[in-house]
Amino acid sequence: MPPRKDPDASASVPAFFGAELRFKREEQGLTLQEFADGCFYSVAFISQIEMGERRMPPAIARYADQRLDTDGFFVRRLKDARKAARAGHAEYFADVAEMEKRAETIEESDPLLIPGLLQTEEYARRLVRASHPRASRQSVDEKVAARMSRAKLFERPNPPDFWAILDEMVIRRAVLPPEQMADLLDHITTVIRSIDGVLQFLPCNASVHPLLMSPTRLMTFPDAPPLVYTESLYSGQLIDEPVLVKQFRKSYDLLRAAALSPEASLALISAAAEDFRDDRQRE
């Protein structure tokens, strides 16, 4: 039998909680099956948590404290970790922001807006202010800074493979003044080219499609199962159920087939940038 693979507890927050969960479970003399028998999660899911491949859900933290008699350790530390990870992100997005740092591939579709990883500071600020009209300037600054910092993952030696499929109206909608819109579109092109990413647009005259209702993100990992994240106003949902993930995958592939080619899409965004510059000159 090969030696057991122990995760490096210092590698990430999920790895720390996973290593501690395994230590406490084995200290109590419980097998994975015995530990899982008292909760609604599978042995496979708990194993992934112990290996640092999944973040620990609050329900598991509460169960572990009760089952392993850890005096509230997991609940307390998980709250601290989630608060630190949030740092300007909405609570429902904190796990996604952490996971994308470890992603091997990120595939996004959005019928309404430019995805966060491709936004400029001006665009992000306009969206944050629109969705939180009564937020303080400090709160807005924190949210914008958090969103901008996410793009640093593209600066890594081996950034994730990135693919985005957007509705054409996303680059036609004048969220910013013409000059800033042109800068935004140039920025998107620069990022896509610098990381050898893929950008596609769904033409305005395209028919309806399954991902029309909300922004959707698919993420794969080198050492964990794939995930889907969907978002609506003030809420988001992480999906790891294999059947649903496969369904989202099929929908994304159909959308990919219906969109313009990458070459035509880059030409489209360049033309849109020039249109905004022409608008600026006519002012």
How is this structure best described in words?
It is a single chain. By secondary structure, this protein is an alpha/beta fold. The chain has two domains: 13-86, lambda repressor-like DNA-binding domains (434 Repressor (Amino-terminal Domain)), CATH 1.10.260.40; 91-117 and 155-282, Endonuclease Chain A (Endonuclease, Chain A, 2-Layer Sandwich), CATH 3.30.870.10. It has twelve helices and six strands. It has a six-stranded mixed beta sheet. Strand 5 (227-232) and strand 6 form a beta hairpin. Helix 1 packs across helix 3. It starts with 12 loop residues before the first helix and ends with a helix.
Structure, briefly:
This is Helix-turn-helix domain-containing protein. This protein has 283 residues and is of the alpha/beta class.
